[in-house]
Amino acid sequence: MRTESKPIHLIDMHSHFLPGIDDGCKTPEESREVLRLSRKQHVRLMVGTPHYYSDKPVAQFLTERRVALEKVLDILTPDVRWPMIRLGAEVYYRPSLFREDRLPELCYEGTHFLLLEMPFSTWSPNILRDVERISAVYGVTPVIAHIERYLKQQDRSIIDELMNMDVLIQINAAYVLNCYPSFRVRHMIRDGIVNILGSDCHNLEGRGPNMGPMMEKMLEWGMGEELRDIRDQSARVLGLM
Ligand SMILES: [Fe+2]
After folding, report:
1. Taking ligand 1, which is a single-atom ion, which protein residues have CB atoms under 5 Å away?
2. C-alpha 91 to ligand 1 mean position (Å)
3. Closest C-alpha to 144, from 177, 126, 125, 166
4. Model confidence, pTM
5. HSE on the CB side for 76, CA within 13 Å?
6. pLDDT tens, residue by residue, 126-180
7. Which CATH architecture has domain 10-237?
């Protein structure tokens, strides 16, 4: 069922297009191609969210991120329309993360929303308490990155508890495209569980930009309204609405 033909402008809230800073794009040229393909797929704003593993000081990470961005901006020619770029980070959970003084600086630029990558183990109640402390200590709202990757390892009760916390939920475009049976992801979206969408793209091959095919799939499912809604939530998170 596809009821609309017009593409929807998208915001990609999770990507690793910045070059040479994590396991994402390796060169500015690769980054430029990722941006070009993303724009072709109707992405109008792309947030670069390199991994932060607490293996270096926050200040160093922020400097490296700025330098990586400048390398890309240097080779973007003005005759082409590029997506707008914003900065963020995908911060990996650690038990004492809430003690990191400069944590708010890792939020989506200019916001109090932090893209948080959870451990790929079974979560104990203590882990959820730590996530709550992040909000309590800094007034920062965690955005749980690609929740779909953790669902199998967790007890239903832990997921229910997380959903009742002051967090936002992000899923990857690949989940929309590959979830089988697809009713799982469709229900998650229809029930309003999904707040944020991102490509989590890393490169041109294997983990390339895929927001466009995701949109096609959602339009096929008659979920244009839901997609706009999620896009608008992203715009609000970034302070654009
Ligand atoms: Fe990621």
Report:
1. 90, 200
2. 9
3. 166
4. 0.96
5. 19
6. 999 999 999 999 999 999 999 999 999 999 999 999 999 999 999 999 999 999 9
7. Alpha-Beta Barrel (3.20)
